[in-house]
């Protein structure tokens, strides 16, 4: 499998560089006794916290690991207060050893915070996507950054499929009519289409992108994908997806474009005004990857002009999105808060993954190779 080769090459690259590790490296996989200060940053559930006993991804649920950690003598502090010099997180920066956060309510681990976190050794992402961490600064400081790879890929792929259908069928205006006591079929039908026969292109064909291609096959779409690596020939044959080496050549062919690439320095602002202009007029966009992959104002302008006929996603920059974020008010959008990867099922998976990595950390054992983003000061190959 292509992704297995990527994970293996990343692990081999990390392993081969171990002998030349920077003297700044903060040793991770060495069992050490004593109480450790662990800080978790999650979104607050308030009145919803008690409505589901499996709602563990919030402050109140604390990933379901509080009793376990405290039984081992560790200090576990959980908060949603993460911004500004007077925040609860800032109080613990100087002496925390492990920081756990999520993409849904990210604690931005900046170079400045890393510099002040003299005791920090490990940053864990409860979920997938660690771009809230300054990875270069983390590597320079000798930190380890890891995430629960694969924990919410099904959740996100399903959500993408839902958003595609919402846009193609022009669902939201009809829903709003019902709420507002209206009935105007023409106001919906004039731009409602079938998904069958449309060309869908995914920018990125990793775990989520591949799952989306498999799910779209049943709709008899024309499927295209762009990635650094081709997917397995068997999966290409199964889905009928065609590899597009040149992104700009793929874009004008697509009725629908789905963003499935991680946020890196190479993909930040990837879809600017010029690249969006290369897409066909009336294109639909779904982005559950990262908001910063898109140029914010370029998306607003394209939605306003009609060049983008619909834009849906759950990722913003920054997060939480401020009340005056222009994507809240642009036409033809079907945006939500960052929810696609935090279903109850996904929460249980990434909570279990975090617990497993903490247990390995306490014992001085390695994590699963594919979970590493930075290992003791060395960036995984896909982030270099």
TrEMBL record:
Q: Which CDD domains match?
A: FDH (cd05302)
Q: Where is the D-isomer specific 2-hydroxyacid dehydrogenase NAD-binding domain?
A: 162-340
The record ties this protein, via SUPFAM superfamilies, to: Formate/glycerate dehydrogenase catalytic domain-like, NAD(P)-binding Rossmann-fold domains
EC number(s) for this protein? 1.17.1.9
User: Protein name, please?
Assistant: Formate dehydrogenase, mitochondrial
Q: A GO term (biological process) for this protein?
A: formate catabolic process
Q: Does the keyword Oxidoreductase feature in the UniProt annotation?
A: yes
